[in-house]
Backbone:
């Protein structure tokens, strides 16, 4: 039975809309620079909400057109409610509420992190629980035990910086422009990951599933200062490789440890940092050693997108028309994890 | 200007807690310091003193983290912003309202658009775990209270 959901995601820099029918993605539009030429013909949205505002309608239209549907064919509308940039979230929420209200459809308000975790529910990955999910991005770093998609259980999270944030800030110290992830990874491939002994956060604090990246960031800063400009330039590749290793190795190690602890047959990685080649290598090795199924969605489903919001919406309570009119965006994540 | 050298995160958190106790509704604290200096650590101590439970993490990505303590607490980070007119900080300040307090990291790019801060914090790396922290108040009374706080923590 056809049950297409239109989803909108504007929690950060990307303006995204998608149409998903069950586990099948019918369209998935993200207004990054490349797509903007076909969708809007304008500039790339930076951080500000006003860019979402000028782009969101075109992106929604494109998602419907790519799916070969009109708004009338849509069963209900889903939107990212939290967490994110408040000004950015407000645009998506206001758009979704307006569309739902005007067309008499129900609304589903989704937690962005729930979306990252639920991305593996979609075809072709179509992972079924139980599994442990690692979500690592510029804003988030967490491990969840997923026994059912409706209620992931938070196992651990960063106590200070997100992994992607640590990568961006470290890359900046090494003179790599934002976003630093791809540049750092390319540089790291030419370097020796064992050249510098950067501290791994929370090492030796027992079986904690939490992460910490403030210490390694400081260690890189001290190394760069000690080496001076010339020395840093000479050792950039080694610095990049060692720093990247100190960030991604704990992600892989703690994901595997959590899989061991909870005896699950599968693990998944998601979020922008899941695009990191070194992280993929480490989790691929770890999963193979343990005979675990490893689920890594396409890059387009790891970075921010609206298809994952539609996926999470399948496991989030529906707010019936017109009860959602008073609902609003919320900037912060609820303590402990995920909320509708 | 009152100055204290800390060698562990607990003392930095305690300084944050002490600063929090000096704040009233609508007050702003600006924090400067290099990467990994301990700005978020200090804000974590302040947030705990204001009754915030749960993780207090870096706001760089979301720009504004808001917490419900005894008063609304905003933890802001202008690292990614370049324009004093950027609406994110303004929206966050509006969200905490007249009753809340705000801690703002990397304020240089937006300071022109902010109300005067009650306290300014500057954190310098001193090598290893050592941090040299300067605190400055907006008036003589605040400076005196900060001086007393720093003396207490040194003891």
Residues:
């Amino acid at each position: 039975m056809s049950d297409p959901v239109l989803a909108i995601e504007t929690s950060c820099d990307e303006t995204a809309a998608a149409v998903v029918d069950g586990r099948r993605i019918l369209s998935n539009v993200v207004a990054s620079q490349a797509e903007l030429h076909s969708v809007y013909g304008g500039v790339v949205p930076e951080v500000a909400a006003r860019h979402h505002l000028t782009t969101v309608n075109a992106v929604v239209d494109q998602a419907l057109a790519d799916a070969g549907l009109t708004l009338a064919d849509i069963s209900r509308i889903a939107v990212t409610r939290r967490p994110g940039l408040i000004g950015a979230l407000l645009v998506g929420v206001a758009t979704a509420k307006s569309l739902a209200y005007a067309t008499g459809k129900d609304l589903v308000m989704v937690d962005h992190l729930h979306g990252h975790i639920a991305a593996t529910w979609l075809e072709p990955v179509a992972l079924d629980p139980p599994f442990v999910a690692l979500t690592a991005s510029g804003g988030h770093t967490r491990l969840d035990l997923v026994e059912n998609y409706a209620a992931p259980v938070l196992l651990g999270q960063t106590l200070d910086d997100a992994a992607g944030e640590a990568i961006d800030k470290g890359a900046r110290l090494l003179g790599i422009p934002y976003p630093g992830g791809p540049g750092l990874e390319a540089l790291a491939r030419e370097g020796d990951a064992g050249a510098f002994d950067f501290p791994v956060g929370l090492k030796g604090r027992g079986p904690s599933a939490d992460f910490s990246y403030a210490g390694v960031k400081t260690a890189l800063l001290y190394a760069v200062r000690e080496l001076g400009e010339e020395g840093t330039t000479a050792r950039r590749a080694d610095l990049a490789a060692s720093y990247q290793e100190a960030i991604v190795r704990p992600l892989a190690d703690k994901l595997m440890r959590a899989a061991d602890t909870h005896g699950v047959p599968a693990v998944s990685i998601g979020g922008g940092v899941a695009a990191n080649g070194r992280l993929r290598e480490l989790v691929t090795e770890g999963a193979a050693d343990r005979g675990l199924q490893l689920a890594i969605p396409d890059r387009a489903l790891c970075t921010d997108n609206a298809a994952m919001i539609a996926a999470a919406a399948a496991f989030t309570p529906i707010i019936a028309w017109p009860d959602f009119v008073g609902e609003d965006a919320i900037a912060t994540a609820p303590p402990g994890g995920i909320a509708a | 200007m009152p100055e204290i050298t800390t060698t562990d995160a607990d003392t930095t958190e305690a300084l944050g807690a002490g600063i929090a106790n000096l704040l009233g509704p609508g007050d702003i604290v600006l924090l400067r310091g290099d990467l990994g200096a301990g700005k978020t650590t200090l804000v974590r101590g302040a947030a705990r003193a204001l009754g915030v439970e749960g993780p207090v993490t870096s706001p760089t990505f979301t720009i504004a983290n808001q917490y419900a303590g005894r008063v609304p607490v905003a933890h802001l980070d202008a690292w990614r912003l370049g324009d004093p007119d950027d609406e994110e900080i303004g929206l966050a300040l509006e969200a905490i309202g007249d009753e809340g307090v705000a801690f703002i990291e990397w304020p240089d790019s937006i300071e022109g658009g902010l109300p005067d801060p009650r306290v300014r914090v500057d954190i310098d790396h001193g090598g290893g775990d050592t941090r040299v922290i300067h605190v400055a108040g907006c008036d003589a009374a605040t400076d005196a209270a900060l001086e007393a706080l720093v003396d207490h923590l040194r003891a």
About this structure: The mean pLDDT of chain B is 88. The two ends of chain B are 18 Å apart (CA to CA). Residues 3-133 of chain B form a domain with the Rossmann fold fold (CATH 3.40.50.300).
